[in-house]
Amino acid sequence: MNIVSIVGARPQFIKASPVSQCLRRAGHMEYLVHTGQHYDAYMSDIFFRDLDIPKPYINLNIGSNTHARQTASMLIEIENILVSIKPDIVLIYGDTNSTLAGALAAVKLNIPLAHVEAGLRSFNKLMPEEYNRIVADHLSSFLFCPSHTAIQNLSNEGINEGVHFTGDVMYDALLQNIKTSEKKSDIIKRLSLKKNQYILATVHRSENTDNKKRLTSIFNALEKIAQNLYPVVLPLHPRTKKFIQQYKLSISNISLIDPVSYIDMLILEKESRVILTDSGGIQKEAYWLRVPCITLRDETEWIETVTSNWNFLAGANADIIYETAKDKKNGNENSYVYGDANASEKITQLISA
After folding, report:
1. Is residue 78 domain-resident?
2. Which residues contact 101 (CB under 8 A, 6 or more apart)?
3. 137 and 18 in one domain?
4. Secondary structure of 23-88 in the HEC alphabet?
5. pLDDT, tens digit (0-9, with 9 covering 90-100), for 226-251
6. Residue 63's pLDDT is what?
7. Whether 135 and 206 share a structural domain
8. Shortest CA distance to 116 belongs to which of 343, 353, 352, 349?
9. Using CA atoms, how far apart are residues 280 and 311, in angstroms rounded to an integer?
10. Domain-located, residue 300
11. What positions carry a catalytic annotation?
């Protein structure tokens, strides 16, 4: 079977890694198309190396732009590739513009579409990702859900055919890579950190970066945490860096570092005291690694991490962020709400049937 897998952003490289390995072991011919949505070497190239993902069949090098222009450019190029390859199925991941463009290109050519991480909803229509995931789900023939909540979300929208609970492929990736990370990564030593004595932060979502009030409030909280509680380490996303400069934010106590590799990030997460993030993937990784997490959003798609008390929604309120970071404790015993780390095999079997 010929399969075109479309990726374009850092989280999608992580998700695609275990799936790609399973597909190839099963004898499928996979054409990995990298849209170039994340084009910085630290956000892209290093992940293909660390995750042992085959070199992409093609990198479209689309780069950054407005949502409309970026999606339109991807749609044109992806359509050309699909016409050329004529795949049996197109595989998309998550909720980015790459996901949306891949979905639209496939269905307009009557190619079956499979969505990994289907059924997620934030119910926040101000998020561009929410529209991307809704459209992708309603166009897909195969919907691979990471949780039973996702299945219920789809059912509520009248989607019941082709829906499968597979678990979360990011859990597969984490378990495959954590031991290697522990052996290879020296990030704790390089940054002169002490285990369980620092706080890891990430900020990248447009709802935070594109809003001066929210971003200022978040960094005010991080500054206060760094001054009064523990050192704060923040791998800086290119978008966040741009808006810090645009808003002329003064940052003096936070350790801003370049984006790091996947294996380094896993170790930074694992050894941190608390994680502050607006990333969906890191919320889950914190849950699996049993590290308390504070989410810098007003809602989350990963509600199981909240109901188990591993995750707390603080939004962009500086006082709430600070007080929660000071007092956040471990949550309840983890359960298998996101599957048994065999999601990639299940997806491969369902596609192959």
Report:
1. yes
2. 6, 35, 71, 74, 75, 78
3. yes
4. HHHCCCEEEEEECCCCCCHHHCHHHHHHCCCCCCCEECCCCCCCHHHHHHHHHHHHHHHHHHHCCC
5. 999 999 999 999 989 999 999 999 99
6. 82
7. no
8. 343
9. 11
10. yes
11. 204
Residue 31 maps to which CATH number?
3.40.50.2000
Q: Which two tokens stand for residue 350?
A: 């369902």
Nearest by Cα to 220 from 287, 318, 144, 105? 318
- Residue 209 and residue 114: Cα distance in Å, rounded? 31
Closest CA to 167 of 8, 15, 1, 9: 15
Distances (CA, A) of 72 to 35, 44, 252: 12, 21, 40
Phi, psi of 227 (to 5 degrees): -75, -35
The two three-digit tokens of residue 275, written as one number = 């994680």
Number of domains in the chain: 2
315, pLDDT greater than 80: yes
Would you say the pTM of this structure is higher than 0.85?
A: yes
Find, among 213, 211, 212, 209, the residue nearest to 234 by Cα. Answer: 209
